[in-house]
Design a protein that fits this description.
The chain is of the alpha/beta class. The chain is 46% helix and 13% strand. It folds into 3 domains: 131 residues, de novo design (two linked rop proteins); 224 residues, Alpha/Beta hydrolase fold, catalytic domain (Rossmann fold); 60 residues, no CATH class. The protein is built from 16 helices and 9 strands. The chain has a 9-stranded mixed β-sheet, sandwiched between helices. A hairpin with a 2-residue loop joins strand 1 and strand 2. Helix 12 crosses helix 13 and helix 12 packs across helix 14. The longest helix is centred in the N-terminal third of the chain and has 24 residues. The chain is globular. The C terminus is likely disordered.
Length: 435
Amino acid sequence: MTSAWTLVKIVRMREHRFFGDEQFEFAMRLALGSAYHRAAEVGECLATAAQIHERDFEGWFRAWSRTAERVEAAAQDCEARGHPVSAREAYLRANTYFFTASVFLDATDEPERLVPTWERHRGCWDRAAALFDPPFERVAIPYEETTLPGYWMSLDSTGRPRPLLLMNNGSDGPISDMYVFGGAGALARGYNVLAYDGPGQGAALYRQSLSLRPDWERVVTPVIDYALSRDNVDPERIAIYGASMGGYMVARAAAFEHRIAAAITDPGVWDVATPSDSPVLRLVRRSPQRIWRAPIDAIAAALAARGPRRLRHTLRFGMRPYGTRSLAEMLTLLREYNLDGIAERISCPLLVLDPEGEQFWPGEAQQLRDSAGGPTAIAHFRADEGGALHMQPLARGRSDQRILDWLDETLAGIGQPATPDGATVGTPHLADTPL
């Protein structure tokens, strides 16, 4: 079987590269792809990348921080001089650059800069959100004994009921990505959009210390409850999109929350533990935790403190959303994050995205598509069309088109009169659709 990183190397030979290091390259593509929705500037990204040496984690932070600070200063100047559109666009770009600066801080000698840098990213996003017309509304979604932070995005201020797209992130991306990864495209097509930080994500993690949970329907259900408390939502047309690990979360939620009319996973994720699969993980899965926890955690702690920088980043960054500093505990928790016995309970229409060279969950898009209980479609993205790698970061326009055209067609049939043979007018036949 071809390994995930072999697939990446194949893709690498067919495309222009900015970095040899796979993670630098992927982070660069994410930033560059944000330019499609004005959350980055191609020239700024290229100029910043030119200042960075391979695997220079400190250099990465400093270069992106310099760019972010310069663009943030420009945004503040535009705002002060009464140019709200220019200010909004500059704040959007600065938000992307501050977040990009933060992503490898766990590999540096000063990882404590992560949260302050993240806060600067979020501050720029908040300023940009306030300058849209109408402004994006910051909301607090009731959740258990607290609230989850979110952003309500509307096309206009009429308050008329519209279809709603819920934007569900993964374990490590910013909420601003939800605007870039479909929110902006959905607004342009007449949807309302609700993006939120769930447990283990963004502000819910850094400000509230809420950790990831496998039963994600317990997160989505209160989000839908909140959405339905508003007057401008069509209750029969609530769709949900999941990015990265959100592909698992959204599929899991759709299996239990039947008010979801359609779901999109970008990409399809079956078992969240796949990227960390190793002999150690398999040993922990099969053995009582008390036997292996102490030696595993001792080794992991030593490596996180003094090991190779890439490994430091992997350990620190990977465990944080799960609310633990114990590698053994995280590996044990991961046992619960899979769709075994669950996918067949998904009854709503499901679109599964499948990019060539998927480096984290290769092959799992097809597995989810084949196992889901309801009508399904799959959208393949090819490297020779610019759609390679996880979440096809350099194909944001193509992603919008395929996701949102499918969603338009899927939701169009809901509530329509039945034809004499019992079929619903406008409902696409999805079971064998390879978009």
